[in-house]
Amino acid sequence: MFSGIIEAVGTVQAIETTAGGRRFWIQAPFVGELSVGASIAHNGVCLSVIAIKHRFYCVEAVQETLSRTNLGDLELGDPVNLERSLPVTARLEGHLVQGHVDTTLAVLDMERVGGDSWYYTFELPPAWAHLVVEKGSIAIEGVSLTVAQLEEKAFRVAVIPWTYQHTRFSALRRGQRVNVEFDILAKYFWRWYQLYGKAPAFQRSS
After folding, report:
1. What does the mean pLDDT of the chain come to?
2. pTM, entire model
3. Domain 103-193 belongs to what architecture?
4. Which pLDDT value is given to residue 88?
């Protein structure tokens, strides 16, 4: 489990193509603290460390992951948003993020609003519109963000200067596809609605 608060921005140092997918060697400042098997979110995708060498560690993404996310687009030298899994005693600074990307969406627009604050607008296909609400939580490239504005076929988030400077948001471009994980509470609520055809009736315990 993750919080959507990016811990560091790593760099892709090597990419290996295998029969089952791809392996990525990542340089990160916390490599010395890692052990094989550790869970790390890479642009919002939870992957397990399978090897560690010097200042680098290796993770593997299978074809299902590559097809559902934008990890297959990574190239040598690309920045990667990194977050290690949460310890049980950690404060939840962002929101509950599983590291299971639902889809990729395109960046439609970027607007600078004073200093280094930005508005980013993303497409919102009808298939996913029911999982996005204004002022609700959403994880984009592994970053916990709040939906600032909701339209029929798009939504906008506000990115503060710290987030812009300390994540890969500064490298995003129009038309680029980003990893998106919708709020787990919205997904469970929608599943309930699909099964029972109405909102759950909450009752007070006596």
Report:
1. 93
2. 0.91
3. Beta Barrel (2.40)
4. 79
| CATH number of this structure's domain 8-84, picked from the four choices 3.40.50.720, 3.40.190.10, 2.40.30.20, 2.102.10.10 | 2.40.30.20
pLDDT at 204 over 80: no
Are the CB atoms for 71 and 45 separated by under 8 Å?
yes
CA distance 58 to 25: 4
Give the three-state DSSP class for 11.
strand
Q: Where in the chain is the domain with CATH 2.40.30.20?
A: 8-84, 103-193
**Range 109-117, long-range pairs (CB < 8 A, 24+ positions):** 109/174, 110/172, 110/174, 113/158, 115/161, 116/161, 116/164, 116/165, 117/158, 117/159, 117/160, 117/161, 117/164
Long-range contacts of 61-65 (CB under 8 A, 24+ apart): 61/21, 61/22, 61/23, 61/24, 62/20, 62/21, 63/20, 63/21, 65/21
Q: pLDDT at position 2, please?
A: 94
Q: Quick one: average pLDDT of 104-126? A: 95
Q: What is the mean pLDDT of residues 73-100?
A: 91
What pLDDT, on the 0 to 100 scale, is given for residue 206?
46
What is the Cα–Cα distance from 90 to 78, expressed in whole angstroms? 29
Report yes or no: 107 and 175 within 8 Å, Cβ to Cβ. yes
Condensed to tens digits (0 to 9), the pLDDT of residues 165-179 reads 999 999 999 999 999
